[in-house]
Amino acid sequence: MRERLLSWLWPRSLRGQMLLAIALALFLAQGIGALLLYRAEHERIEGALVHNAAFRLGVAIQGEPKLPKGRGPERHERLRGSRVTMAPASPVRADDRRETSQEMELRRILIDQEVPVAEVLVVHRPVTGDALARELLDRRDRRYRGPRPSDVMIAAVRLESSPNWLVARVFVPPTERLMLRTLFGQTLFIYAVLVGAMWLMLRRITRPLAALTTRLERFAETRDSAGQLEPQGPDDIARLITAHNAMEAGIVALLDEKDVMLGAIGHDLKTPLAALRVRIETVEDDTERQRMATTIEDITRTLDDILSLARVGRPTDERESTELSALVAAVVEEYEDMGEPVELGDSARIVLPLRSTWIRRALRNLIGNALRYGAVARVSLTREAGAAVIRIADDGPGIAEDQISHMLEPFTRGDPSRNSETGGAGLGLTLARAIAEQHGGTLTLANRRGPGGAVEGLDVTLRLPA
Fold this sequence. Notes:
This protein starts with a helix and ends with a strand. It is 53% helix and 18% strand. The chain has helices at residues 2-9, 14-62, 100-112, 131-143, 175-222, 235-279, 286-311, 324-337, 356-374, 428-438, and strands at residues 75-79, 82-87, 117-126, 151-159, 165-172, 320-323, 342-347, 351-354, 377-384, 387-393, 442-449, 455-465.
């Protein structure tokens, strides 16, 4: 499940993967930078708050004789430009969290000013949770308008010579909230600029690559040099397209030369074979004449298979919409008309774009092999997982497991039971596999085993994408 989710989230295209990598790297870099800036700004603000509180407390301590000495409720006084209060008890509540680092800094500043400090307390509290802070803020707002702070820092000091606490309140400016909004907006702007620029650049690179990929797929299917791409994109991509066009032209020239050569070979070989077929009619010995005719027929069939195998990779006919079930039934009927033991089993109605001549050739090769080596051929057509599956089963001895993969290679016969006496040049399966691959399909062989594990025949599966 996890791997499936990752494969779904991770883009498959080059452009998507590069954009995602850039976005993640930018997010990491910007996050680290924003964190460092936030910490620096936070420490600067904390330092300013502590120094502000130290100044106010220092001024108040110098004028402490003028402050009321009563132990009543906390009272507000204005002395030499500083606002402090005097309280008989600590102003820290049970739910307050003490700021240890700020307490240490405040103590250091006061000691540097030779203030006899006994205790120091520093807490942060919401303005709405402190009545005196709300009163001070309301008085300030009547004089001028500005961003209203939401927190207040309360710094309290008890001197060694007094049981009372001097308390200073310093409002925390809303700078951090503004800074967070600024960093967030800056990050979005950088994302928009960099990711947008990278998207345009990657689009300029990947569009020619996508067009080249489509061209390669089409050329692999048709071997047609028509419709070559014009060099486009960056110089590296344009050079790649130019090199591909040159390679296509070379491949097409080689294929044309091969076709001419094959045509010449076919003509030059079939002509003397036809002459030999005529000449053997003068042989008086029927047995010898029949052997010679069989030999000539084997050579002709082998030559046809070789030429077909050479041409299958470059078909000249287009695919046409074909009802595969009818095509399979027609091939089976041909063998039934000749009295061959060929059975047609399950046959689903499937319509596919096919080259009917080639598929018919592949089926004849496979059924012929089944009859030659397995005495019987059972044919079925089903639809499985988006593919048309043709199975041909025989009752022969099967193929040794270590030889199955080699049986699809040209001129391979397998075990001794498949010898030259049964006919053929070992090209039937190779040609059938090439035809399957021409249609984007596969051809597989597998031994069929009975309940005891003994081989009961061979199953040949021709799978065509539907």
